[in-house]
Amino acid sequence: MEKLEVKNPTLILDEKICRQNLSNMAERAKKHGLKLVPHFKTHQSLLIGEWYKDYGVQEITVSSFKMAYYFKDKGFSNIHIAFPFNPLLISDLNGIQDQSISIQLVNEEVTKALATDLTKETGFFIEIDTGYGRTGVPIGKLEEIDAILREASFSHKLKFKGFYIHAGHSYYADLEGIHKIQKEIQEAFRILKAKYKSQYTELVCRSGDTPTCSIMDDFEYIDEIGPGNFVFYDITQAEIGSCSREDIAIILAAPVVDIKKGNNEILIHAGGVHLSKDVLNLNGHKNFGEVVYLNELGWEHPTAPSYLKSISQEHGTIHASAQLMDSIKIGDIIGILPIHSCMTADCMKEYKTLNGRMVDHLEGRGITG
Amino acid sequence: MEKLEVKNPTLILDEKICRQNLSNMAERAKKHGLKLVPHFKTHQSLLIGEWYKDYGVQEITVSSFKMAYYFKDKGFSNIHIAFPFNPLLISDLNGIQDQSISIQLVNEEVTKALATDLTKETGFFIEIDTGYGRTGVPIGKLEEIDAILREASFSHKLKFKGFYIHAGHSYYADLEGIHKIQKEIQEAFRILKAKYKSQYTELVCRSGDTPTCSIMDDFEYIDEIGPGNFVFYDITQAEIGSCSREDIAIILAAPVVDIKKGNNEILIHAGGVHLSKDVLNLNGHKNFGEVVYLNELGWEHPTAPSYLKSISQEHGTIHASAQLMDSIKIGDIIGILPIHSCMTADCMKEYKTLNGRMVDHLEGRGITG
């Protein structure tokens, strides 16, 4: 990795690991007869987006209008905006020529506003909450689904596509918990199909979280999956069991600026503006990221772990193993596996591949785009 | 504030509050005979940077080379980079024409590398650690200071300017704790002046944290102050007692996309990519930001508090007061006071003033620059 000439905090992407993650998820989808409609909020990159096409992906998911514009303007279509539709954006939606963009609805009020003001055909999913508690119509409240569908039926513009579940509580679950969450998703889709499939024969059921999509082997009642994080994975997913640490496709390369020998601490230029403040409690301590050693091919995982024990805006303090303390010197570059890769990518706004190619990110814009 | 036409998450800046904060700190500095060398890492904005000049500021502090370049290129000089110097950047430092840029040193090794490779005159501060534990030479280890000064003396290029302390543990202290921290800073500077002032007659002692600079009234042994956060303040500073909530100069304006009446919850478009994941534990619950109500003049503070109880990448869930639940509707815009304004500004990358002017930020670049 010496050719990268890293001098400042830099987000490094291993294309090979990334493509392996894409390939694995595409294989899983194929094996279970699922359409893969991946979420692009993790990478937010046109170039990385292109890679998915090599694994058969034709439809994508995003979490904001800003993100939808970014991909649409560069030739992506069939974009689903998986965020409760903001009624202040009806005129923006009307202004988009591409009719393949779909939206997400969670209540009667917004559906009503759209039924009145929408000027072009738009598909929508109804988001269902099976217990995460963040957003969506609770599965117990079928009357709210009826109300949304009734309001939508007053407009020839609104086209019901199906139901969407993001069971984000799987991010806080163990393997047993993830099995339980998957069962809840399947039961919700079973109920919804039993009630609505006869009237809406084309409706599909889509489920979105990386843990269930990475781990489960029973997808009955699920037609499509929309995971995002799997493109890079991270320490959170490795701890859940969605992946191993070797599957993590990005690291933050950070310069060593001081070494505190007595404390087994290493000060690096890597803080909350680079990694985000996402944190896990592992083995009784806060962990803002884990150390890997850089080598000529990329990076390797140490036999003795070291981790980021604290970060502020620009500073990071590593609690270092004896192994690391023995080999490190000021001016070295160290790798940090992120706790939450979506947030780290959003902080860093661009990537550098192992062969030195700069890769775009929506927030950094236009490096390759 | 209706003229702002906010439809998406937008960082709103009240210039009047911001200028009042600048004026207050400049007055405090003047009263105590201190030079104010404010830290610009909080706002990272050329336009806001210009405002400081109205209050007599001529020297500034930044936390990275990237930030130094941004301000230097637009006519700012006397920039101090208050981050342990990264030895990989010696050639970058040599490449900067402006000789008024100063750096920060914390160890003998980097000083030695600079003494060998520096090609132009550069001032430096030695950072001292009085107990924060993040960076700097511990005040108990005067022999390390001697080693830095000895290495520096081998070069005619390295010019010792003085000692710098950022007592960041004040961010986690109460009023009594902040008094104690200030005493530690003063005692450290007393010891350092006693030992080094006779040889380095021009040396100054600079202290950097917003809590001590906002609250204390005794600055003996301190010559200069370098606070940053005070330009905007935030909930963290209000809880410490550095300011009141009315002194907070920025809010995130966020659209309401769903209301969960039974749960007293409001779903907004505002997540970790907008506010950062910084969080406080207040009154026994996690708090990612506090609600203010928008009005035609800006915003007002509710008599019944509501707060952000959880956030993910793009979603935020407000625990709402009965007062807020009674008045809110989907499609409204709500204001969120940030927990940590430096991080929120870094996430949002631009500001909009109450009269609709867009204001630049380093990461967003060039709106007004």
From TrEMBL, chains A, B:
It holds the Pfam family D-ser_dehydrat. One of its GO terms (molecular function) is glycosyltransferase activity. Keywords: Glycosyltransferase, Lyase, Transferase. The keyword Phosphoprotein does not apply. InterPro entries: Ala_racemase_N, D-amino_acid_metab_enzyme, D-ser_dehydrat-like_dom, D-ser_dehydrat-like_sf, PLP-binding_barrel. It comes from the Bacteria. SUPFAM superfamilies: PLP-binding barrel. Residues 249-355 form the D-serine dehydratase-like domain. Coiled coil: none annotated. GO terms for biological process: D-serine catabolic process. Belongs to the DSD1 family. This is Amidophosphoribosyltransferase. It comes from Anditalea andensis. The lineage of its organism: Bacteria, Pseudomonadati, Bacteroidota, Cytophagia, Cytophagales.
